[in-house]
Automatic annotation (TrEMBL):
Keywords for this protein: Transferase
Enzyme Commission code(s) on record: 2.8.2.-
GO MF, one example: transferase activity
EC class (word): transferase
Top-level division of the source organism's lineage: Bacteria
InterPro entries (UniProt xref): P-loop_NTPase, TPST-like
Pfam family, one: Sulfotransfer_3
Protein name listed in UniProt: Sulfotransferase
């Protein structure tokens, strides 16, 4: 089994870009969000007491079954270092640490108001293509969409709560928080920090010719551009398309920026 690590965090915060960069390293495999976290949760549920046969399943068996899920899924992957991407991994930190004692989790983050802005920008750009993000519902307003995605079970709200749990939890020494702004303005420093964190030798990346295309997936999800990665990394300033009252609702949510609220032992780059 190769070394396994995880990419998690908030949506629209650079996880696809980080994966695209890691793919340049021939030792590494990384990609957009995959199905393993969902399968992981489904297996845990099926092995719980709600299954009448769970009396035959103890924790040792559960651990072997869950570990076997990764072994089987990546059995044909020749990479020496695998990064599995899903926003839910921050919520599974205690289980991940039990299964993979050497695994690390990289959480990509971005100011919540700009995450919401980025999603809304995609929706308004693809005005004739209702998105799976909102159940392919063509109606609603910027307010109803924002309220939906920041809810506790929403596209942004749920990963945000998982992120906070991971950042303040007992396994935070396994977590590296990567800010979108750092990744896009100083990718070289960011990648050095990533390799140092996971204990891998540094690799000389190319930051002006990035190749990663999942157009077909995005179009099937009704959200073209959802995982688009620009060929050249750079910071692109713009005005928000959110109304001021909505934008200002989230300006204090970036707890990782405030030295007074960052828990001891948490690494932020």
């Amino acid at each position: 089994m190769p070394a396994i690590h995880f990419i998690s965090g908030l949506p629209r915060s650079g996880s696809t870009l980080l994966a695209a960069l890691l793919r340049q390293n021939p030792r590494c495999h990384a990609g957009m969000s995959g199905p393993l976290a969902g399968l992981f949760g489904a297996l845990l549920g099926e092995m719980s007491a709600r299954n009448e046969f769970s009396v035959f399943i103890d924790d040792a068996k559960r651990e072997r079954v869950l570990h076997g899920l990764f072994d089987s899924f990546y059995a044909d992957n020749p990479a020496e270092v695998i990064f599995d991407t899903n926003r839910a991994w921050c919520g599974w930190m205690p289980a991940v640490s039990r299964l993979f004692p050497d695994a690390k989790v990289i959480a990509c983050v971005r100011d919540v108001q700009w995450v919401v802005d980025s999603i809304e920008r995609l929706i308004q750009r693809n005005v004739f293509t209702p998105s799976s993000i909102f159940g392919f519902n063509p109606g609603g307003t910027v307010y109803t969409r924002a309220n939906g995605i920041v809810a506790q079970d929403g596209l942004v709200g749920a990963p945000y709560d998982m992120l906070k749990q991971a950042c303040f939890g007992a396994q935070r020494d396994r977590l590296l928080v990567v800010q979108y702004e750092t990744l896009t303005t100083d990718p070289e420093r960011t990648m050095r920090a990533v390799y140092d964190f996971i204990g891998e030798p540094a690799f000389e990346h190319t930051f002006d010719d990035i190749d990663y295309d999942v157009t077909e997936f995005d179009e099937r999800a009704g959200t073209p551009g959802l995982h688009t990665v620009h060929r050249k990394i750079g910071s692109r300033s713009r005005e928000t398309i959110l109304p001021p009252d909505l934008f200002n609702r989230f300006v204090n949510d970036a707890f990782w920026r405030n030295p007074e609220t960052v828990p001891e032992g948490l690494r932020v780059v």
